[in-house]
Amino acid sequence: MGWLQATIPMGIVVVALGTVPILQYQLTMAFFGKPRKVGKDQFTRNLHARDNRLWEADIADQEAAKHAKA
Predict the structure, then answer these.
(1) Which residues, in sequence order, are CB contacts of 22 under 8 Å at separation 6+?
(2) pLDDT for position 26
(3) CA pair distance 35, 24, nearest whole angstrom
(4) Separation CA 35–CA 40 (nearest Å)
(5) Which domain holds residue 17?
(6) DSSP string of 51-65?
(7) Which pLDDT does position 38 carry in this prediction?
(8) How many domains does the structure of the chain reveal?
């Protein structure tokens, strides 16, 4: 029965350590809001690059279709 009495305080400590970062995050968001993003992250850059490639390929297909009709 001694191990059970030892696990209860350890469980309280683990729960407390697990919830403190979440509470810190929520308090920070409540007072300061989301940080303003300066510049573009890599995901956004890749997304724009992909869009540009698709756009250029679409224009090339339209030009080829025009020349095929003529």
Answers:
(1) none
(2) 87
(3) 15
(4) 13
(5) 2-69
(6) HHHHHHHHHHHHHHH
(7) 67
(8) 1
Quick one: tokens of 43?
């995901």
Q: How far apart are CA 67 and CA 64, in angstroms?
A: 5
Residues in the chain: 70
Amino acid at 16: A
15's tokens = 């729960």
Amino acid at 15: V
For the chain of 70 residues, list the mean pLDDT of each consecutive stretch of 10.
Answer: 83 87 86 74 85 90 86
Q: How far is CA 61 from CA 58, 65, 70, in A?
A: 5, 6, 14
Q: What is the pTM of this model?
A: 0.37
What does the alpha-carbon distance between residue 22 and residue 15 come to, in Å, rounded to a whole number? 11
* Per-residue pLDDT, 42: 81
